[in-house]
Design brief:
- The chain has about 375 residues and is α/β, with parallel strands linked by helices.
- It has helices spanning about 35-50, 125, 130-140, 145-165, 170-210, 230-245, 270, 275-295, 315-325, 340-345; strands at about 1-10, 15-20, 25-30, 70-75, 80-85, 95, 100, 115, 220-225, 260-265, 265, 300-305, 330-335, 350-360, 360-370.
- A hairpin with a 2-residue loop joins strand 1 and strand 2.
- Helix 4 packs across helix 5, helix 5 crosses helix 6 (about 230-245) and helix 5 crosses helix 9.
- The longest helix is centred in the middle third of the chain and has 41 residues, at about 170-210.
- The radius of gyration is 22 Å and the shape is globular.
- The model has no long low-confidence stretch (mean pLDDT about 90).
Length: about 375
């Protein structure tokens, strides 16, 4: 799969852009704050129906404007496809595939797979368990719609149980109905997460070794109440009911799962340098790419936003070597250093294009194969 053309109007600081892309490597050069990452975010939005930055939809509209639109033309499994999103602040956004609006946006997730590597990935290491659960859920949901459905059902049931707890409801029958729903979804979620972590670990360790290449030993594992308790979700909820009633929320279950990240037998967040942390998050995302490529039956888009910061020259060189390989499909790269981008393009025998980005405008610098 690749994105052939992208049209943007009033998305963040991009007033108007019409770009035709290489099916392989697309590089965006410019100083910070010029709009490089905003372009990647527009591409991300078309795959996930939301911004990578976490901004609300209304905050994405260029200041002083009344609407925004993003349109992408793709070649997906040999078929031309078009995605279009339109938004007016305060109104329901319109998200269309092939001119037809989705009934449920969740039905779109995974249809146009994408992996983004960005500075915010540091939160995977330094952030809370919620960040790592979001990473896990986003990856699995793109290749397993049943998993996404179970996540949604579990989340709704969890909200219902928490409301019962906050309202000090004592009727056991009301809890039973909600907890049975939680148990069914929790069992599936936990089983899939266990399998996913085991599969991802092998791929991740391989990528980390390729980039670090100096004997560092990374590892990871799932930390889960349910995975370590043979009694199931209902038994866990029974055990913690009194405590949950006191604190007013559910303290056990898949919504409290975490991924433990280790390097040389120590937690990464405490023992790793900045360069090691950056290597760790890049390796996690590249492992995510491999997982999704296999699950989706096509090569996802790979977005690399300012990935060379905090890496020494040898690790930059090895990252360039890895991403230049044929295993990856279409790649979008941003950087402030033209040498990095020229190095990547010089290694690739495939088509490539590069742009200079200034104040939301994109000026073509080089083009090969188009």
């Amino acid at each position: 799969m690749h994105l052939k053309r992208l049209s943007i109007t009033n998305f963040k600081n991009i007033a108007d852009a019409r770009l035709q892309f290489s099916p392989k490597i697309n590089c965006f050069l410019g100083n910070n704050g010029m709009g490089k990452s905003n372009l990647l975010d527009a591409v991300y939005y078309l795959s996930f129906c939301k911004s990578f930055s976490g901004l609300t939809d209304s905050a994405l509209v260029k200041r002083g404007e009344e609407f925004m639109t993003v349109r992408g033309e793709y070649l997906r499994k040999g078929i031309d496809e078009e995605l279009h999103v339109g938004l007016i602040p305060g109104k329901r956004k319109s998200f269309k595939r092939g001119g037809k609006e989705y009934d449920r946006l969740s039905a779109h997730i995974g249809a146009f797979p994408l992996v983004m590597v960005a500075p915010a990935d540091q939160e995977l290491i330094s952030g809370t368990g919620e960040e790592r659960r979001r990473f896990m859920d986003q990856v699995i949901s793109q290749t397993d719609s049943v998993y996404l459905d179970n996540l949604i059902r579990y989340g709704r049931a969890l909200q219902q149980r928490n409301k019962l707890l906050r309202d000090h409801v004592a009727d056991p029958s009301l809890y039973l109905a909600v907890e049975l729903s939680m148990e069914r979804s929790a069992a599936y979620i936990t089983s899939v997460r266990q399998q996913w972590v085991a599969r991802l670990t092998d791929i991740f360790e391989r990528y980390y070794t390729l980039i670090a290449a100096d004997g560092e030993i990374p590892s990871m594992g799932l930390k889960s109440h349910l995975a370590t308790n043979g009694g199931g979700m209902m038994a866990l909820l029974d055990e913690t009911r009194r405590h949950d009633e006191i604190v007013g929320h559910t303290t056990v279950g898949p919504h409290r799962d975490d991924i433990e990240l280790w390097l040389n037998g120590m937690p990464v967040r405490r023992a790793a340098s900045q360069g090691q942390c950056k290597t760790y998050t890049i390796a996690l995302r590249l492992a995510q790419y491999d997982f999704m490529r296999e699950g989706a039956g096509m090569k996802p888009l790979l977005l690399l936003d300012d990935i060379f910061d905090k890496l020494d020259a040898s690790r930059v060189e090895r990252v360039v070597e890895v991403v230049s390989g044929d295993i990856f499909g279409q790649i979008f790269i941003t950087d402030t250093n033209r040498d990095h981008l020229d190095n990547i393009m010089s290694r690739s025998a495939n088509d490539h294009r590069s742009w200079m980005v200034e104040s939301g405008s994109f000026n073509l610098l080089t083009s090969s194969g188009l």
